[in-house]
Amino acid sequence: MSSTTNPSTHHTSTIGAIGAPSRRNTELALLVFAVVIPVFAYANVGLAVNDQVPSGLLGYGLGLGLLAAVGHLVVRKFAPYADPLMLPVATLLNGLGLVLIWRLDQSPRLQQLAENAYGSFSPSAPKQLLYSAIGIALFVAVLMLLKDHRVLQRYTYISMVAAIVLLLLPLVPGLGANVFGAKIWINVAGFSIQPGEFAKIVIAVFFSGYLMVKRDALALASRRFLGLYLPRGRDLGPILTLWALSLLILIFENDLGSSLLFFGMFVIMLYVATERTSWIVIGLLMSAGGAVVVSTFASQVQVRVNAWLDPFGCYADSGACEQIGQSIMAFGSGGVLGTGLGQGNSDLIGFAANSDFIFATVGEELGLAGVMAFLLLYALIIERGIRTALAARDPFGKLFATGLSGAFALQIFVVAGGVMGLIPLTGMTMPFLASGGSSVIANWALIGILLRISDTARRPAPAPASNPDAEMTQVVRP
Predict the structure, then answer these.
(1) CA 393 to chain centre
(2) Which helix (H) or strand (E) holds 188?
(3) Which residues are registered as beta bridge partners of 187?
(4) Nearest Cα to Cα of residue 153 among 398, 420, 368
(5) One digit per residue, pLDDT tens: the chain, 478 residues?
């Protein structure tokens, strides 16, 4: 007797069995460039300002490299299938932000201004490096502790309460701080914290959980008007509630940026959940109407609107007009290629130069080319976030990734648009670039959550169990 093996029953390898490539080595290679480029920029600033290589170049390079290495090792261990671009791009933006802040620290104008105002000068770059380290620590904690983003769905309504508490904290007497007319900071143990930066992540959890349950009802249309399917009256409750909340934030905290961010994020997620264009139109009309009404009696908003309409008309009378005017002149003097790192005059803007208006330094010293490069880096994070939403296998993850990406995109738009004079100034900070601990820490947490959703979405499905009927058999021939 002889036996043969049926070739059709051979075991074959599939992508599901082998596993999709994790792309961690790609991430590592990109991280090398993300560290080298800021180190080169740091040396460039030192040569331009002091005619010598900065003495802290080695320490800065090692510090940034250590933070990048820690982030990479944690992603490799706890999120091996996560998107390979987000961490390098965020590291590059954070590193370049540290360089720009250090460049402004070297300005004699800003040093003298700080000494006149506070009696001493305290550089912002070392503090920003500390905040970046705390941000990376929170990034690590998110990846290690949040094993599955779907767990957050359980806390839908708790997150709503937490977000409201965070937004109201700056109004608490003795805790909130009024800085340049805006009540968006709190003082805790000698540190200034902006709760709204963390509220945008918490409220995205609520929006995702709520819309996942209510999207079918919200997608129903009652009538058609001017080519748009209008929602039913009773379904307008959520958007009216968020509209009212955004107006209250605008009125009591004089915070145009946060009100635009939260309301805009909800409208974006509502459109994604229902696929109804009418929600976008209604949201835009309500946002514009609310801003017009509030600007008529909110003094801080009115000042910013006037500075936006004609910054040079009130240049000598208003600090807001002077800042916008200086910013516009900085962008204009930068031209296409810029004046060169360390060779601009954006420090004339004053204290806001390293926070709200740090993008003006980019426009002057790196020119239009540098501005486009930074906007493309931000666009990469947004695009990878949207790609993560498309790849997510669960509706909560899709909405959550969309909300976080939308919030990030809106923040870029309102900050860049305000500094360039496209829209009224909002007072928010450019993510990863501007000086501010709350901003950099919250945005590192945002990147960590997106990487967790990405890892879950890109992780290959487990290989199916073997079929006993497909086992190799022996064919016995006489």
Answers:
(1) 23
(2) strand 182-188
(3) 192
(4) 398
(5) 444 444 444 443 333 334 456 788 999 999 999 999 999 999 999 999 888 998 889 999 999 999 999 999 999 999 999 999 999 999 999 999 999 999 998 888 888 887 877 777 788 889 999 999 999 999 999 999 999 999 999 998 898 888 888 888 887 777 766 665 667 777 776 677 888 889 889 989 988 988 888 777 777 666 666 666 666 666 666 667 777 777 777 677 667 777 788 888 888 888 888 887 777 887 778 777 777 776 676 667 778 888 888 888 887 777 778 888 888 999 999 999 999 998 888 888 877 778 888 999 999 999 999 999 999 999 999 999 999 999 998 999 999 999 999 999 999 998 999 899 888 887 788 999 988 888 999 999 999 999 999 999 988 876 665 555 554 444 445 4
Beta strands at 228-231 and 2-5: parallel, antiparallel or unpaired: unpaired
- Residue with structure tokens 């600033």? 45
d(CA 359, CA 379): 16
Lookup: tokens for 176: 């909130």
Q: State whether the Cα torsion 417-91-263-383 is positive or negative.
A: positive
Paired tokens of 62: 């090692």
Cα four-point dihedral sign 185, 188, 191, 194: negative
Amino acid identity of residue 208, one-letter, is: S
Alpha-carbon span 365 to 360, nearest angstrom: 9
What's the angle, vertex CA 415, arms to CA 412 and CA 421, rounded to 5? 125
Q: How far is CA 117 from the centre of its chain?
A: 32
Neighbours of 258 (CB within 10 A): 27
